[in-house]
Amino acid sequence: MSIEVDILNGDASWARAEPLHRAIWGRHVVEKQPWAHIEWANADLRVLLDAPDDGGLACHVGIYFRTITWNRHKVHVGGIGGVATREDCRRRGYASLAIDAAVHTIRANDAVKFAILFCEPHNFAFYQARGWHPFTGEVYCEQPSGQIRFEAMTPFVYDVVRAPRDGKIDLCGLPW
Ligand SMILES: CC(C)(COP(=O)(O)OP(=O)(O)OC[C@H]1O[C@@H](n2cnc3c(N)ncnc32)[C@H](O)[C@@H]1OP(=O)(O)O)[C@@H](O)C(=O)NCCC(=O)NCCS
């Protein structure tokens, strides 16, 4: 089976990723979530995994880069978000492959000290099995209404150099 993994500009590739997003996070699904009201950042880059034998685009991972603060110290981080595999293509290792590609891309940025993602309890085990650790401190972010404490999802961190496990993170912008 052939698989193609592309890492593309986030804005330019949104049109390709959008149908997969809509299929998984349609309005009727989103409106029931504790994060329904959250405004999200747009991805800087996107990993798109195409599996022609599985009917085309099968998996997406958004990649983010941001200078945040941790305990008031500036630090450059990477992030992943919008991790999604088409429902009929799950448990074939596609998300694992796409996350690996995203982490490689984040590591390739010399300024990055660690990576952050946000997820829901049913995915904790999935990310922990892939080397991500819970961040038990507080996370703040921007929203159109101003700064808020971000508690709608749980933060996980990934060591590039070494990620903090607690303390206070300010995302200095919209969450992802
Ligand atoms: C979570 C998700 C991206 C996983 O995609 P996937 O392509 O099926 O993942 P993979 O095939 O790489 O998973 C590989 C392994 O993880 C396991 N796994 C998948 N989801 C899991 C979960 N939620 N918890 C624990 N293990 C999980 C699979 O059993 C598989 O294990 P195996 O290799 O031993 O069989 C997919 O289920 C999805 O799109 N869910 C809906 C959207 C979502 O929740 N996204 C995450 C946002 S943070």
Automatic annotation (TrEMBL):
Entry keyword Ligase: no
Pfam families reported in the protein's UniProt record: Acetyltransf_9 (PF13527)
Residue stretches making up the N-acetyltransferase domain: 3-155
Gene Ontology molecular functions: acyltransferase activity, transferring groups other than amino-acyl groups
Keyword Nucleotide-binding tagged: no
Gene3D superfamilies, per the entry: 3.40.630.30
Protein name: Acetyltransferase
Family matches, as InterPro entries: Acyl_CoA_acyltransferase (IPR016181), GNAT_dom (IPR000182)
Keywords for the protein's UniProt record, in alphabetical order: Transferase
Organism (species): Bradyrhizobium macuxiense
